Amino acid sequence: MLCWQTSVWFFLPIATAIAFHYECAPYSVRSVCRIEYISYQPGDQISFPAGYQHYYIKQKSMRVSSFNVTIFDQQLYEAMHRPTGIEMTSTRLEELILPTELLLGDFSSNHIETVNTTNGENFLITYLDLSSNMIRNVDFVSPLVNLEVLHLGHNSIEAIPGSALSTLTKLKYLYLQSNYYITSIPWSDIPRSIIHLDFDRDGLTEVVFTNIGLPSLEYLNIRHNELLTINITELLRAIPNLKEAHLYNSGLGEEQMRKIYADLTANNISFTNPFDRCQDDEQYSMTYGDCIKRQEADPFLTSRLRGVLLSLVVVATALVFVCMVLLVFKHMNR
């Protein structure tokens, strides 16, 4: 018995020291390491191939075992040999501890609720995609002073504090679409470097462009919000180099929207007019504020439905005839 216990204690450190080593799957870009499955929990001993500056981690198919990794932390980053780019999508991540050395990070389509940027200073990241997650608070953004592209669409963000944006002096592209709880935007804190703003299908109830200056902005999307008015004069003054604008809100009504479109046309700003398409093309109709193409009936389904209905009519007629014959026969036998 004593010998067996001694053996267990001897081999236990060896067993716990065994590491999981992941190999790169075949990929068209030689500098990119593609990983099709990963399992990781804090404390696990894992390793990855060296010599890659970009990791692409995504499940190959739904038939493969699901990822078992809920946190991306410094230990996992070190195991990857500190790459400059990481794409880790659809892996069920819940928490992200952002490395300071990362330049490009795509962590979209996960379950991320928490992003930690308190672990260091001088973040180098310029591109960050956190779309389609479960993020509510965006205070973590403010230390990322080198960001140029930020994707935060399709989350559960409740508010955008000015302090989160004012430090991002290099930001050019900001995507915040489909965050239904956002009712206002701190326009005065949006960096003057911004080129592209997307607030499509949020919950904006007001946009105020007074005393705002966005000289680099070329693309603005604030359609499908809860807006009841847009001061197009102030908008054009605040955004003098605007090239494309999507401003449709059903609450403004067709008359007001047409006036806005006239001002955009006069200033050579491109836009999509849902009213014209729906009026000029019978294949389209306005549905919940969108000009949507009508669904054409499938000829096969239509003919099949017609055949089913005809069969039902024949069966019903036969039943009525049988009932009448039985009634007549019963009456004659009295």
TrEMBL record:
Keyword Signal: yes
Record-linked Pfam families: LRR_4 (PF12799)
Membrane-crossing segments per the record: 308-329
PROSITE patterns in the record: LRR
Top-level taxon: Eukaryota
DNA-binding found in the keyword field: no
Alphabetized UniProt keyword annotations: Leucine-rich repeat, Membrane, Repeat, Signal, Transmembrane, Transmembrane helix
First and last residue of the signal peptide: 1-19
Name this polypeptide is given: Membrane glycoprotein lig-1
